[in-house]
Amino acid sequence: MSSHREAPEISKDPVADSTDLYAFVSPDEAGTVTLLANYIPLESPDGGPNFYEFGDDVLYEIHVDNNGDGRADITYQFQFVTVNNIPTSFLYNDGPITALTPPSASSTWNRQQTYSLTRVDWNPGGGAASAVNLGTGLLSPPCSIGPLSTPNYAALARSAIHRVEYRGLSAKVFAGQRAEGFYVDLGAVFDLGDLRPFAGYHVGGPAAGLMNGMPGVNSTADVNVHSLALQIPTAQLTRQTPSGPTDPTAVIGVWTTASRQRVRVEGADDTGGNVQSGPWTQVSRLGNPLVNELVIGLGDKDVWNKRPPVADGTEFLSYFARPLLATLLPDLYPGVFPNLKAYNAVPSNTRADLEAILLTGIPSGLIPGFTNYNGTGVKADQLRLNTAIPASAKPNNLGLLGGDLAGYPNGRRVFDDVATIELRAVAGATLPLVDPSFTADAAAGAVNFGLTTGGTDLTAKGTEDYLPSFPYLGTPYSGYSNPSVTPDSEAR
Amino acid sequence: MALVGTFPGLSGLASTAVSDAPAVEPEAAAVTGDAGAASLAQPLLAHIKDLGTGEISLFQGEREVIINDPALARRLLSAVQH
């Protein structure tokens, strides 16, 4: 998955497990950038009575690097507080939830969350220059339960979009449940790298009775996530007003982290409550999709989650320079990637294209009219967005590979087919950008997961619910209707 | 309890603590603080890292302070062994 359950340790701590990160120029709000950080993977919508919620004991952060040094210049911090309005009830709610009233004993909504939002500006040399509380007691919506408990859910959730002020400008914030927007065929790809549409070419495909042309299965359809969403004036993210798309100051690098305090004592007080103590320590990190998932080795995944992005240029660089997946593809699909196989066979060959996409941004001169280079060459896994490139009027879910300069890896929009984009890049589709002597295999530009019919197709199951405006990720699936009642499931 | 008085208070900036190394207190300061004027507003937790050097991490609120006090480390160990 993009970053769902991607490392052994964090897979056991879903509340702190970042799943996806998005950063894009808002298509409907000129002069703003939208940042979305999702947590809590694969929420089954009917997962009550203790429905999903953010962790009160987790510090959630979205970081922005606007000078290319690989370190945060701005951080938005979310911290949650949960109350039980009716401690004697065993239910999430004792009646319909029709409004986001503040926590109160008279509410029918038993388990309620509020949060604070803080903006921290960092000195270039480290240490906080300022920390401004943008809001406290901000209301999160409930989970989507069903027509009796959460009627008119979409409107209820919209009322959880808050406006906050910073230095005279207004921003939007939302924190709550959303429909999963990421799509990928997990069942196939984790079955020894199978791609259902091309299963007949797989080294083990024919013997297992698999054939080409099989449709993909969206493994993340009909599940929810919890999203931290911000829509911020661009001028409050860049270090200065850029002169245009070629100005390096237009580029920001974004990543999200979750941190826990270093010490936890279970049952530390008379009520059986726990005590947390000590400095906040990072336990989860996410910049570009699929990095820890598919690039970092299993033995390093846990430590990667605890390191800052600048460690990617030192401790983890070998994973980016010669990614294992690029080596496996020609073996899994014999004869399909001969040029990639030959390239891999030269020990000194490294993947400068992937380092540019994932670690520094793409320098100017490689793609006409485009750059999201950080201006310094500092290698750090960040989602890099050129904020001076406007949103596309005709978006292509293959982003840059589809000729759409506003799409991944220029930031990431909710509908971008990042799994296919990265698969094609790893397969060699982007290697000619930095090594003109290399000819990409034909398959590198064709492989996909069989979940869309092409770049303009946004109708794949689970991807059709995106919203045209903030927070863009769809209304969450309700527990009453998901999983669906079908004759097959009834039989079980 | 004798060490509580060495903590000046809690950081208001959570992220500062994320990237900052723990403060290292001189041994003398760690053991001679004015505990009598303090109160234990938040739990104080200790982690003995090295009995030989007496390196002890102390956690309170969002702070971690490292002291080096072999005698104290031995006394704490003795307390849990008897």
Q: What order do the helices and strands come in, and which of them pair?
A:
The complex is a heterodimer of chains A (492) and B (82).
Chain A: E1 18-25, E2 32-43, E3 58-65, E4 74-84, E5 111-122, E6 128-139, H1 153-158, E7 162-166, E8 169-179, H2 186-189, E9 224-233, E10 251-265, E11 275-286, H3 291-295, H4 301-306, H5 317-321, H6 324-332, H7 338-344, H8 352-360, E12 383-386, H9 418-429, H10 487-490
Antiparallel strand pairs in A: 1-2, 2-9, 3-4, 3-10, 4-5, 5-6, 7-8, 8-9, 10-11, 10-12
Chain B: H1 14-19, E1 23-24, H2 27-31, E2 45-50, E3 55-60, E4 63-68, H3 70-81
Parallel strand pairs in B: 1-4
Antiparallel strand pairs in B: 2-3, 3-4
Explain briefly what this protein structure is.
With 492 residues, chain A is of the alpha+beta class. Chain A has ten helices and twelve strands.
Shape, principal axes of CA atoms of chain A? globular
Domain tally of chain A: 1
Specify the biggest β-sheet of chain A: 7 strands, antiparallel
What is the residue-averaged pLDDT of chain B?
A: 71
Order of helices and strands of chain B: HEHEEEH
Number of strands of chain A: 12
Main β-sheet of chain B, in a few words? 4 strands, mixed
The helix tally of chain A amounts to 10
Low-confidence stretches of chain B: 1-20, 27-32
What is the share of helical residues of chain B? 25-40%
Class by alpha and beta content of chain B: alpha+beta
Q: Give the percentage of residues in beta strands of chain A.
A: 15-25%
What sequence of helices (H) and strands (E) makes up the elements of chain A? EEEEEEHEEHEEEHHHHHHEHH
The chain-level mean pLDDT of chain A equals 94
